[in-house]
Write a structure and sequence with these properties.
Helix content is about 25%, strand content about 35%. The strands form two sheets. A three-stranded antiparallel β-sheet has the order 2-1-5, with no helix packed on it. It has one domain. The chain contains two helices and five strands; from the N terminus they run E-E-H-E-E-E-H. The chain is globular. By secondary structure, it is α+β, with helices and mostly antiparallel strands. The termini are far apart. A hairpin with a 2-residue loop joins strand 1 and strand 2.
């Protein structure tokens, strides 16, 4: 399962996929000189949180894999033999 971490001015907010529309809303608010964007809750049923985004505000996105079925590439990498002789 993939969870997205949005870090705004040192505070973390965790969001499920997809976040493309939210990223676009934040970028639009910043390009407009500032504006509020509603950050939805991780689980449905809440109203979310309105955050004022402005130019120069530190914003970072991180994708986190929090478990679930491993991807085929991950299994192949885990089972690969490595030559550590240098």
């Amino acid at each position: 399962m993939i969870i997205n971490r949005l870090t705004v001015d040192g505070k973390d907010y965790f969001l499920p996929d997809p976040v493309t529309d939210l990223k676009n809303e934040i970028l639009t608010a910043i390009k407009a000189g500032g504006g509020y964007v509603n950050i939805p809750p991780l689980k449905s049923g809440g109203s979310g949180l309105d955050i004022l985004f402005s130019p120069g505000m530190p914003v970072t996105w991180t994708r986190l894999d929090v478990g679930g079925a491993p991807e085929a590439d991950d299994i192949a990498a885990a089972n690969a033999d490595f030559d550590l002789d240098v």
